[in-house]
Amino acid sequence: MTILSDPSDDTRLADAYAAAGDTVARLDKDRWLAALYAPASHRRHLHALWAFSAEIARIRDTVSDPLPGEVRARWWADMLAGRRGGEGEAHPVACCLLDTIRRFALPLDAFDRLIEARIFDLYDDPMGSTAELEAYCGDTSSALIRLGSLVLADGRDPGGAEVAGHAGVALALTGLLRAFPFHASRGQIFVPAEILERHRVDPATILAGRTTPGLLAALADVRARAREALAETRRLAATIPRSAVPLFLPVALVEPWLDRMDRPGYDPFRSVVELPQWRRQWRMWRAARRAETCAAPG
Questions:
Q1: CA distance linking residue 70 with residue 123, whole number of Å
Q2: H-helix or E-strand containing 290?
Q3: For residues 88 and 139, is the Cβ–Cβ distance under 8 A?
């Protein structure tokens, strides 16, 4: 006997993927543009991953207290583990994420670590060390590159884990530096405490929006680490699987962002650090052209 699928299920899933794509276009435009370089058949699955990441990342912005935010984050973990029954099917992003996980046999532990890392965002605890900060970047940014690599390789491991790790750190550190004044305005400091202590920076001055020589030196240290991660990404560029190239295109934006923050007179609380959208698109296009000649098979 042949069991026919319910057409309404196909429509619901298509609508869920469309909603995820809209979410990424609105909240993560650079990744949305990068997905245009991926096969059309796989773009919606990348959108599902990135929309999930965006949903988790903005939980703090939607709650007034950490506890309900943590409950919401735990819902995602429970839903992915199958502990919430069919609740996930009613949530557009969860619905298409579950479908993507099933299609490509994506590892659930990577999602668990991402969720745990983002729970840190809900509180104002200090980031103790550089190692802790890089682990946070790995569990969030690097993990998305690795998961996307599995999707674009149809579920098999194409390699490139090391370069994905460095690329994710470079992207995440640069993103945190760009968001530094926003985080400080709501009581968060992602600059490791060990770096602040080395430069004798009182966290209270950061929360008060005061720029000091010590703070500028501390931020320069973080930028230097981002540049190191970028240099490692470039050194390992030949190990990037050809199928995964679209996932690495946003890395082309790291250097110009860092250059703007390295300019004389930079003030993290007052300087306008921006890169026109056309220039961002152009840099990713140029990176895609270069990758055609140096990426690894796979």
A1: 10
A2: helix 277-294
A3: no
Residues 6+ apart with CB under 8 A from 51: 19, 20, 21, 23, 24, 93, 96, 97
Q: Count CA within 13 A, CB hemisphere, residue 210.
A: 9
In SS3 terms, 183-235 reads as HHHCCCCCCCHHHHHHCCCCHHHHHCCCCCHHHHHHHHHHHHHHHHHHHHHHH
Q: Where are the domains of the chain?
A: 9-105, 124-298
H helix count then E strand count, the chain: 17, 0
CB 149 within 8 A of CB 243: yes
What is the length of the chain?
Answer: 298
Chain-centroid distance, C-alpha 129: 20
Residue 92 · residue 20 · CB < 8 Å:
yes
Q: Mind listing the pLDDT tens digit for each residue in 166-215?
A: 999 999 999 999 999 999 999 999 999 999 999 999 999 999 999 999 99
Low-confidence ranges of the chain (pLDDT < 50): 1-6
Whether the model pTM is above 0.85: yes
* Cβ neighbours of residue 190 closer than 8 Å, sequence gap 6 or more: 127, 133, 176, 180, 183
CATH architecture of 124-298: Orthogonal Bundle (1.10)
